[in-house]
Amino acid sequence: MEKVTELDKKIRVILVTDGDRVAQQAVETIGASLGLRCISASAGNPTPISGKKIVELLKTVPYDPVLVMFDDKGRCEKAEGEQALEYVANHPDIEVLGAVAVASNTTGIDGVHADACIDCQGHVIDLSVDKKGEIKKQKDCACNPMITGDTVDVLNDVEIPVIIGVGDIGKMDKHDDLSRGAPITRRAIEEILKRSDIIHG
Length: 201
Prior knowledge:
alpha/beta, seven-stranded mixed sheet, two-stranded antiparallel ribbon, 11 strands, globular
């Protein structure tokens, strides 16, 4: 991974729309195994710090890409997590590589189209997945996969080059269990890095 210097104006980040304790442990573990930085202070249910504070923390990292977590704690409106995500994604010093869009059972939301999803078996698919990482039926099979979750609607309002959908991080009926290295979430992050030409294969 690349060292961040003053000449590098933009800090590369991957947004993760989940931040509870299980998700935090999974994201931190994956970050360490892939050689990525992680803003652990962004974790919480809901997101405990502002987007401005997250950017301040991002500017202290020695190298990037950086994993940043956001969580609305199940609220359908634009709450703490989405507000912080919007601020970070729109900041001129930040380059968003992609987002891991996490499915939930929250109602009253629009959802976001994903470029691909990772199902609970670890396959990259062009179909929607639910909270368990299982394939959901789509009304329109011609469109991209749709992810519905409490912190994903804001992704429609910001520029995100790559969106990869997954079920509930660190869970998915133990398919993404931390004891297994959270393989589904890891695959999603690797897919973003691959599509950003940071890792290959």
